[in-house]
UniProtKB/TrEMBL annotation, chain A:
<dbReference type="GO" id="GO:0017004">
    <property type="term" value="P:cytochrome complex assembly"/>
</dbReference>
<feature type="domain" description="ResB-like">
    <location>
        <begin position="451"/>
        <end position="541"/>
    </location>
</feature>
<keyword id="KW-1133">Transmembrane helix</keyword>
<dbReference type="InterPro" id="IPR023494">
    <property type="entry name" value="Cyt_c_bgen_Ccs1/CcsB/ResB"/>
</dbReference>
<keyword id="KW-0812">Transmembrane</keyword>
<keyword id="KW-0472">Membrane</keyword>
<feature type="compositionally biased region" description="Low complexity">
    <location>
        <begin position="72"/>
        <end position="82"/>
    </location>
</feature>
<feature type="transmembrane region" description="Helical">
    <location>
        <begin position="273"/>
        <end position="294"/>
    </location>
</feature>
<feature type="transmembrane region" description="Helical">
    <location>
        <begin position="121"/>
        <end position="145"/>
    </location>
</feature>
TrEMBL record, chain B:
<feature type="transmembrane region" description="Helical">
    <location>
        <begin position="12"/>
        <end position="32"/>
    </location>
</feature>
<dbReference type="GO" id="GO:0042651">
    <property type="term" value="C:thylakoid membrane"/>
</dbReference>
<feature type="transmembrane region" description="Helical">
    <location>
        <begin position="220"/>
        <end position="243"/>
    </location>
</feature>
<dbReference type="GO" id="GO:0005886">
    <property type="term" value="C:plasma membrane"/>
</dbReference>
<dbReference type="InterPro" id="IPR002541">
    <property type="entry name" value="Cyt_c_assembly"/>
</dbReference>
<keyword id="KW-0472">Membrane</keyword>
<dbReference type="GO" id="GO:0017004">
    <property type="term" value="P:cytochrome complex assembly"/>
</dbReference>
<feature type="domain" description="Cytochrome c assembly protein">
    <location>
        <begin position="68"/>
        <end position="310"/>
    </location>
</feature>
<dbReference type="InterPro" id="IPR045062">
    <property type="entry name" value="Cyt_c_biogenesis_CcsA/CcmC"/>
</dbReference>
Length: 567, 320
């Protein structure tokens, strides 16, 4: 055995003790999780150790992944020959499952084979990646092509006699349903395929990984330890010290005789499973939303009411109207608040809900970002309008003048109304009167019968204004509230999926580090690997190994005697 | 008024300091590694960081809402996030190459924000009703942090690609306009070669240092993008929950939402392609570089179009 000094020469000082060559493939006992790892290289390196499992022969370099069905708890290690029928060995797995041998039922066997083949086809990683690419490309296309327009729009934009880019006519858009891309069969089909791939991959790759990751193993071979990605040896050290230091660094340490195994961050192996499951949850919830929800939109002037069931429309085939649809909603008051600059700061609607007996069951003032929830229905404040202007003319009234919305470019609204000053009859079609315009419920701009600007009044001020000999008093501005109603059974599931996805994505950032060590005489051979944070791992290991105390002098003999070397 | 002047002063301090820092960085890369200059560039970064933070805080106080309501503020926040990214490896005491990426990114972002293109957005404005929510802080800040992280990670991958295919680019090196590119990414290797070529006890690996550098870039890129992916997931999901609270549905296939989802998908492809040892390295770096473009389309391109529910960040280029 070489002296410790020559070890130092061969393996230079710590900062460069990481391996230079790419790490060799570890024996098949280590769990290699990849949906479609190349089989050729695995075959080239035979799995060592008797009594373990057969490795796929080198000739099967293009063999598809084989699926394992875990019908019963598989034995830890067995040397059963490959059995025909239902089971096959999977690369990297530590056990050979017992086959279902004795399947007298041919149809069941056929079903199993078909299922296995579909599963292995679906859980193919390149397929999943190309699905994701295709979905991304379709989504990008969906943002570029205008969605939801009438077919004549596409006839104009993509005419046949002058195709865009030389070949894109309206047929390209309308046939695959690209004008409603996000609900088109192509897109939804791809999403369903991705969901199937997710489920297949979770079942075939990640669930087995859970079983394997939990098993830890001691090595008794210094050679194997030195072949790890990070390997080092500490002359004149004790494995107990190493264990204590690792425990202090947050590792879980197990020792058995001269060998030691430590790991950290195991949750980082489980978390990707959680991510996939959370995504499946979200997809299931979204499907439920798409098929079972109700949506409705209504504009209600202040003071009026409506019945919820009247405005709701089902969105999908599974929509069932709940009893709460009989509730009547009454808009007590709609008002807006403004900044000092005159801009709107918030919209408020004071709503009361009455049930069939006329009893008020709920009252709430809602605003944007603060909806009303009752019995599974949610009412959102989304829009506003101007319903009517209440004016008094020369002390008579009050008259309710309906406000009409005038067309403006952009987001701002403009409402106007007209108060005639003469009688309108057929002989004089041009009736003169007072025009009033308003951008919001706060100020009304008044023009006289020649169209000249007269003044601005606020309904709250109760100040009269003199126009063309008439005294006009603006009493009140009655607004209309725009409400959106929704009931969605899928929302709890989707929210649960969101929470799980956020959590598991965070956890899967953790790196699963494993360290093996062996007390080899007075030297401790250490090797370790990690799946994600490779650079940080080697730096951390260097730091930790620096802390291991060096034993000098009399203690050497004790350690040499008590340890049994197993090389 | 006080706050306006304060903001004005702070933003100009930070902009000028970062210009000086970037000049120092260029000098250290091109000319010589001067210890004193490197220290002062670090101090310059700290100054810029504190003045940007001061700018954001004063804007927060003066306008009463979290400073993230239009494109200008979000760009300043993005450069602040890049500073944070620059500082994290220092706290962890690990040597990094990140500073080469983060400092130019910061200055470019800030330069664009303060430049003449967006002057009408410099004033802090009031918040429209739809944005008055606690979710504003959570969703937009998460998204911007994730953009910063993912930008950094994908630039690291792009650097990896360039270094690996350096031979193919050699015929470009004669041209002047690629000098900047070359000096940023190649001269580090040249420095390493020059300093340590005498030490022959290292194994005769022909491209040892290049290999080491690409391995480090690869590893860093993976970690940074994983972190960015987590933040992006949280940001998108926060946005979906907020949309459900505000408008009644958590996903509307809005262009911005869709492009954020596309970004998420591309980086999911990146993470998955790393599980296969055959594709690690070049192929995944290629995906990450595509991701760089996608992020800019998502963040900026959609705002240029100015459509959809996310129109708060939109701006129109001034017509000359």
């Amino acid at each position: 055995m070489p002296s410790p000094a020559s070890y130092l020469l061969l393996n230079p000082a710590k900062p460069s003790s990481s391996r230079l060559l790419p790490p060799p493939r570890l024996p098949a006992r280590r769990f290699h999780v990849s949906c479609d790892a190349p089989r050729g290289s695995a075959g080239a390196r035979s799995g060592g150790g008797g009594g373990r499992r057969e490795v796929v022969p080198a000739g099967a370099s293009k063999a598809k992944k084989q699926i394992v069905f875990f019908d019963s708890a598989p034995p830890v290690s067995s040397s059963q020959p490959q059995q025909g029928g239902g089971s096959a060995t999977e690369k990297g797995e530590g056990e050979t499952p017992t086959s279902k041998g004795g399947n007298g039922n041919a149809a069941l066997g056929l079903l199993r084979r078909v299922t296995k083949r579909t599963l292995s086809a679906l859980s193919n990683l390149p397929l999943a990646i190309s699905e994701m690419f295709a979905i991304a490309a379709l989504m990008a296309l969906g943002t570029v092509i205008d969605q939801g327009e009438a077919p004549s729009y596409y006839f104009e934009k993509f005419p046949e006699d002058n195709p865009v880019f030389g070949f894109i006519t309206w047929r390209w858009i309308l046939t695959p349903g690209f004008d409603h891309m996000f609900s088109s069969p192509v897109f939804l089909g791809l999403l369903a395929l991705l969901a199937a791939s997710l489920m297949a991959c979770t079942y075939t790759t990640q669930l087995p990984m859970v079983k394997v990751a939990r098993r830890w193993s001691f090595t008794h071979s210094g050679e194997r330890i030195r072949k790890q990605e990070f390997a080092d040896s500490l002359p004149r050290a004790s494995i107990q010290d190493l264990g204590v230091i690792l425990m202090g660094a947050g590792y879980e340490v197990f020792t058995k005789g001269p060998s030691l195994y430590a790991f950290k961050g195991l949750a980082g192996r489980y978390a990707p499973i959680g991510v996939h499951l959370a995504m499946l949850f979200i997809m299931a919830g979204a499907t439920l939303s798409a098929t079972g929800s109700f949506k409705g939109s209504v504009d209600v002037p202040q003071g009026l009411n409506f019945v919820i069931g009247d405005v709701m429309k089902p969105r999908g085939v599974l929509s069932i109207a709940p009893d709460v649809f009989n509730t009547e909603v009454h808009v007590n008051r709609f008002y807006m608040e403004y900044y000092d600059s005159g801009e709107v700061s918030q919209f408020y609607s004071d709503l009361s809900l009455f049930n069939l007996d006329g009893k008020e069951v709920m009252r709430k003032t809602i605003k944007v970002n603060d909806p009303l929830r009752y019995g599974g229905i949610t009412i959102y404040q989304t829009d506003w309008g101007f319903s009517a202007l209440q004016v008094k003319k020369n002390g008579e009234g009050p008259f309710n003048l309906a406000m009409a919305q005038l067309k403006l470019n952009g987001d701002k609204k403009l409402y106007g109304t007209f108060l005639p000053l003469e009688d309108s009859d057929s002989s004089n079609p041009n009736v003169k009167g007072i025009s009033m315009l308003a951008r919001d419920l706060q100020s009304i701009v008044l023009y006289d019968q020649d169209g000249k600007f007269v003044g601005v009044r606020r309904p709250s001020s109760k100040l009269p204004i003199e126009i063309n000999g008439n005294e006009i008093l603006i009493e009140d501005a009655i607004g209309t509230t725009g409400l959106d109603l929704k009931t969605d059974p899928g929302v709890p599931i989707v929210y649960a999926g969101f929470g799980a996805l956020m959590l598991t994505t965070c956890i899967s950032y953790l790196s699963h580090s494993q360290i093996w060590a062996l007390q080899d005489g007075s030297t401790v051979v250490v090797g370790g690997k990690t799946n994600r944070a490779k650079l940080e791992f080697s730096e951390e290991m260097n730091r930790l190994l620096d802390k291991v105390p060096e034993l000098i002098g009399a203690n050497n003999e004790n350690i040499v005697d008590s340890k049994s070397t197993a090389t | 008024m006080l706050f306006a002047t304060l903001e004005h002063i702070l933003i100009h301090i930070s902009f000028s300091t970062i210009s000086i820092v970037i000049t120092i960085h260029l000098i250290t890369l091109l000319v010589r590694e001067l210890r004193g200059l490197r220290d002062s560039s670090e101090k310059g970064m700290i100054t810029t960081f504190s003045s940007i933070t001061g700018f954001l805080v004063s804007r927060w106080i003066s306008s009463g809402h979290f400073p993230l309501s239009n494109l200008y503020e979000s760009l300043i926040f993005l450069s602040w996030a890049l500073y944070i990214l620059h500082t994290i490896p220092k706290i962890q005491n690990s040597k990094n190459d990140l500073s080469t990426i983060t400092t130019p990114s910061t200055i470019l972002t800030q330069g664009f924000a303060t430049s003449g293109l967006l002057t009408e957005m410099h004033q802090s404005t009031i918040l429209v009703p739809a944005l008055q929510s606690q979710w504003l802080m959570m969703h937009v800040s998460m998204m911007l942090l994730s953009y910063a992280t993912l930008l950094c990670g994908s630039l690291l991958s792009a650097a990896l690609l360039i270094i690996r295919f350096q031979k193919n680019f050699d015929f470009f090196s004669k041209k002047k306009k690629n000098v900047l590119l070359k000096t940023f990414f190649f001269s580090e290797i040249e420095n390493l070669y020059a300093k340590r070529i005498k030490n022959t006890s290292f194994p005769a690996f022909p491209n040892y240092y290049k290999y080491q550098l690409t391995e480090r870039l690869d590893s860093w890129s993976y970690r940074v993008i994983s972190l960015g992916f987590t933040l992006l997931t949280i940001g998108i999901l926060c946005g979906a929950v907020w949309a459900n609270e505000a408008w009644g549905s958590y996903w509307n296939w809005d262009p911005k939402e869709t492009w954020a989802f596309i970004t998420w998908t591309i980086f999911a492809i990146y993470l998955h392609s790393r599980t296969n040892p055959n594709w690690k390295g070049t192929n995944s770096a290629l995906v990450a570089s595509i991701g760089f473009l996608i992020i800019w389309i998502c963040y900026f391109g959609i705002n240029l179009l100015g459509i959809g529910l996310h129109s708060y960040g939109s701006f129109t280029l001034p017509s000359k």
